[in-house]
Amino acid sequence: MRKIIVKLMGGLGNQMFQFAAAKNVAKLLNEDYEIIFDTSFLEDRTIDIVYRDYDLSIFNLSNQLDNSLNQKFNKIIINDMNIITAINNIHLLKNDKRDLYFEGFFQIHYLVDKSMNQYYKFNEFSNKETEKFFLENVTDKSLMINIRRADYVSRPSALSFHGFLGEEYVKKALSKFKNDEYDKIFIFSDEPDWCEKNLHIDNSSVVGHEHAGNKFRDYLHLMSKFKNFIIPNSTFAWWAAWISDNQNNSTKIISPGKKLWFRNNPEIAQLIIPNNWDKLDSLE
């Protein structure tokens, strides 16, 4: 059986993209395979990054984990630069029987097959209070706003690469909605206290981390229950919108366009946003 090894990097949203890319190629190969998660990078605490853990555990996946080093030796390397070429020449991968090693972020919307719905799904909230909150407060017209801060502002390297989208971005995105397109606004964030103090959005309330759940499982689940979205340059929020779009028939999704997703690096983000989402390319 052929092995497809996925080097997991970054937080939950990034790990979801990495698994989705591997599943996409595996489906095209149309042969027996086993997907293994390489967790060695996640467990490395010697490099200067924001440390992450294996977060795909919030889903009911049965993939083997392997934290041994140098797993890509003597394998076909699939990365961000060559994955499209590899897909377009899938016959070459079929003929070369070596195992595959995925090493990249793969933030390309059309690599996410709708079949991922069967893996990225939630049966129920782990916290009954969160389920009660949803049932009593969220309607089909409610609007979900996500604010991503944390290392985007605390680490100069992350700020220069990603950029922080705050109140100015949110208000610009809100202008794309008509007044009758949404009712209540719920704000989700990795820094809810900052949002309480600094955002001035009418008819809005901040959803605290008492609804986060293990590894923010319930937060993602709750966010994905909305049908109207304003998301920042965050893969976590991207996945909430994607799950909703594919399972709940979302009404409207406002996302940063390629010029706002990565600060001064629009070419990297040119393929991340699905065509049916509304893109905000400028704050002017």
Structure summarized in a few sentences:
Helix 10 (217-223) packs across helix 11.
Strand content: 15-25%
Total domain units: 2
Q: Strand order within the widest sheet?
A: 8-7-6-9-10-11
Largest sheet: 6 strands, parallel
Q: SS-based structural class?
A: alpha/beta
In whole angstroms, the N-to-C terminal distance is 54 Å
Q: Summarize the helix and strand pattern as letters.
A: EHEHEEHHEHEHHHEHEHEHEHE
- Give the proportion of residues in helices: 25-40%
SS field, number of helical segments:
12
- Give the overall average pLDDT: 95
The outline comes out as: globular
Q: How many strands in all? A: 11
Name of the CATH class of the largest domain: Alpha Beta
The CATH architecture designation of the largest domain is 3-Layer(aba) Sandwich
Detail the poorly predicted runs. none
- CATH topology assignment of the largest domain: Rossmann fold
Rg value: 19 Å
